[in-house]
Amino acid sequence: MLFFVRMAVLIVFILSGYFLGLKYSAFIEGTVLGVLCGILALLMERAFKTVSLGKILGGLSGLVTGIIFANLLLLPLRRVAPDISVVSFVLNGLLGYGGLLLGVKRGEKLTLSGLFRAFRGQDSDEHLKILDTSVIIDGRIADVCEAGFLDGVFLVPQFILQELQHIADSPDSLKRARGRRGLDILHRIQKMAHITVRITDEDFPKIKEVDSKLVALARVHDAKVITNDFNLNKVAELQGVSVLNINELANALKPVVLPGEALKVFVIKEGKEYNQGVAYLDDGTMVVVENGRRLIGKNAEVSVTSVLQTTAGRMIFSKPREEYEKEEFRAIKQT
After folding, report:
1. Going from the N-terminus, what domains does the chain have, and what CATH number goes with each?
2. pTM of the shown model
């Protein structure tokens, strides 16, 4: 269908050129001119597909502003030297081109909805956030929003929705459940009064990976990416995109424990090293109990010896309470 429309546009240009040339007894030149204009129109149509509306508007605004500024500078010069055509040409060219480049660059973040909001006197999209597939499926983002720690506009691109739908339609029952959970979480966030979920059709056809598309979209809108994907976090930060990592938030909210502090834990399994036991706190923090193998399957009181922060979370190293107190007593006695 699109091919026939393009051919029709080309034929209209050719016929227009032919009849215009016929009027001035130059139908061959007119036809050639019509063909060239038609081809130019089709090339412009293809070029405009890859250029956002914001860049076009920003470029035009910058060009006009640059030319106006150049002519304002030329006003006092024209009174002193009436013939300044060369200076006028150079100054208009430099400032016009400079304004065009600046307008195109700044226009990347300009959207049609943003212009409507500006005309209505509404605020622009500040603190715009983009949700990643993994963080939607994770579900904790809904609890964080419900508690009031996040608000504003959440941008959800169509390619994320398509990925969620693809997971929800998976023949694998586990994947299907995760996909449906993600759609339910998104629907739950959409119902919150202080959150605006905006679906966008913006896409980057030349970029294949979803994570790379997310980063590109965040750069265009100067938005933050909300994720719990460690690799996406690093890639986004390398490209200057701000990231809100749910896992980092969870680690930051875990209770602080200090060396010597007593904990009551249930040792559930053997550790990696010899004679170690492993327990977990209510928030999922791993507690490694030295010489705790004999305590597996039992409640035990342990004392913290050290805390290790890793990319996966926090690990607490400890010893049984009696053993720790004995070592402390020996150390005091020796001093």
Report:
1. 12-109 (no CATH), 129-251 (3.40.50.1010), 262-334 (2.40.50.140)
2. 0.54
